[in-house]
Each structure stands twice: as structure tokens, then as C-alpha cells.
Design brief:
Keywords: Heme, Iron, Metal-binding, Signal
Protein name: Cytochrome c domain-containing protein
Strand content: under 5%
Number of domains: 2
Helix content: 40-55%
Pfam family, one: Cytochrome_CBB3
CATH topology of the largest domain: Cytochrome Bc1 Complex, Chain D, domain 2
Organism: Geothrix limicola
CATH architecture of the largest domain: Orthogonal Bundle
Distance between the termini: 86 Å
Number of strands: 0
Number of helices: 7
Structural class: mainly alpha
Radius of gyration: 25 Å
CATH class of the largest domain: Mainly Alpha
Order of helices and strands: HHHHHHH
């Protein structure tokens, strides 16, 4: 009996099925591991002073000491000018203001351009910390005034 075209293709399909299932299972396992909770970003919530110190340690390179991004790296990487953003933001209110804050928090948490333009800080800052950073540090940036923590004074930590 001469094999038909259908009977020739079935064995090839059956040989490929285990490999395809293996790839599918591996892909599902990888996706599940990527969705596992990330390590806690440390003590939270952070104070405004701690967030200003974080900015000094991690953000000045691209955004400049005052947040204006007028330094060489900031211009090269097109770092956001927070002093201009603060001026522009003052004209917004309601849903538009909330949307801008959420966009900035998202950029801090997730990074930009797969971490190539800006790294993700979700392992160091909680979403609450990132929101406080946007509201109380970045959107209060002023040209020529460095973003830096205030000296601690005896009684407690300033917020």
C-alpha cells in the first residue's frame, strides 16, 4: 500500500509535539518566575529627607543637582528637567495632575527604555516612596537650588 500525503505528515507532527510542549512549558515557567514578587524595597515609607538623599546618590548624574538636567549627561541622555516639569505641573489640577504623577511614578518604578535610558528603582523604592518622591521632591525642584537633604535636628526625622 502506497502512503498518502496525510499519513506522511502525521508522524512529523507527532515528533514535533513533545518539543513544542517543552518550549511552551518552559515559557510558562519563565513567565511565572517573572511575575513572582520582587524583594521588599527596604524600610518604607521613606522620609522626604531620605528621598532627597536617594536623589543625590542615584539621580544627579542625569538630572543634575537641581533637577534641571542641564549637566552634560543630562543633555546627552535627554534627562527630564524637573524644574520645568514643576513649573508646568503647577498649571495642572484634577485628573491631568494625577495622570502626570502616575506617569512619573511609573518611570521611577519601571525605568525607561528597558533600563537603558533610566534604570528601574522598584527594588529600592516602594510605589509609596516613588509617589512621595514625585510630589515632594521632583515637583518642587527649583532652578539653581540643589535637591539635598536637610541636616537632621535632634528630635525626629523631618518629612
Amino acid at each position: 500500500m502506497k502512503p498518502t500525503q496525510e499519513s506522511v505528515h502525521i508522524p512529523a507532527f507527532r515528533r514535533a509535539l513533545p518539543r513544542a510542549l517543552g518550549v511552551l512549558v518552559a515559557g510558562l515557567a519563565l513567565a511565572a518566575s517573572a511575575q513572582s514578587p520582587s524583594p521588599s524595597p527596604g524600610p518604607s515609607p521613606k522620609s522626604v529627607n531620605q528621598l532627597k538623599a536617594f536623589f543625590q546618590q542615584n539621580c544627579i548624574r542625569c538630572h543634575g543637582a537641581d533637577g534641571s538636567a542641564h549637566n552634560a549627561e543630562g543633555k546627552k541622555l535627554s534627562g527630564l528637567d524637573f524644574t520645568k516639569a514643576a513649573r508646568d505641573f503647577s498649571a495642572l489640577n484634577g485628573p491631568a495632575a494625577d495622570r502626570e504623577i502616575r506617569a512619573m511614578v511609573h518611570a521611577i518604578q519601571k525605568g525607561l527604555f528597558f533600563g537603558l535610558s533610566m534604570p528601574a528603582w522598584k527594588d529600592q523604592l516602594s510605589e509609596e516612596d516613588s509617589t512621595l518622591m514625585v510630589r515632594e521632591v521632583l515637583l518642587k525642584a527649583e532652578p539653581g537650588k540643589p535637591i539635598q537633604p536637610q541636616p537632621e535636628t535632634g528630635g525626629g526625622k523631618p518629612r
